[in-house]
Write a structure and sequence with these properties.
about 55% helix; alpha/beta; five-stranded mixed beta sheet; 5 strands; Glutathione S-transferase Yfyf (Class Pi), Chain A, domain 2; Glutaredoxin; about 260 residues; globular
Amino acid sequence: MSAAGGDGLPTLWHLRFSHFNEKGRWALDYKRVAHRRRSLVPGRHPFRSRRLGGRGTTPLLQIDGETIGDSTEIVARLEQRDPETPLYPDTDIERNAALELEDHFDEELGPQIRSAVFSALLGDRKMTLDLTMQGLPSRERVVASALWPVLRPGLRRSLPADVAAGQSGREATVAALDLIESELHGEYLVGERFSVADLTAAALLFPLVAPPEFPYELPVRWPEEWEEFRSSLTGRPAFQWVQEMYSRHRGSSAAVADD
């Protein structure tokens, strides 16, 4: 399926407030791949993803006639397309180590920190809609606000984002910080330069660290439960390392259109 717009540019279909989507955006921006971004409606995005040729997930990248619906596969495709700005280490040993860490953070941190964040967020309708409806027509927010009494319990079940999932997610987030600190023997997780391991860990932790380089809106102050959790971890070396990765390597957007 060709990219939207008919001009040959890659198109990224995404949710602005999403850590896996941030991973895909960061890879495109790091490699300076000019592209278009299209925001999807949360809740309806699985259906649109499948219609576009994906698996019902985001981010979804249309590039060079391909449709890629997984952040790890997006990084791999971009690495193949543009090896001159590498995210994979040079040696087999280091490359395998970086890919193992990428997979670990994707599986053991990604879903869990999402549960932790939304467990706290869903108690605040305005903040949840402010964050999740970014980039969408105002009518979508009006509909979501009207349906909120139905949407909220459904989200708590499906994410999941109940009390137990929130606690488990916070524990997994702390475990990820522990792993980062155990793996760091210099500035980066693997080798002596920025890699997919660093990008993945930092992107998935953006809701915890809230770095100023994150390209979209974040709360000035999060819900009290999440704010207290964040505050308890700001002194951790891994928390500060995520801030440093964003400061050094997030860079500016390579998107030529973003709507």
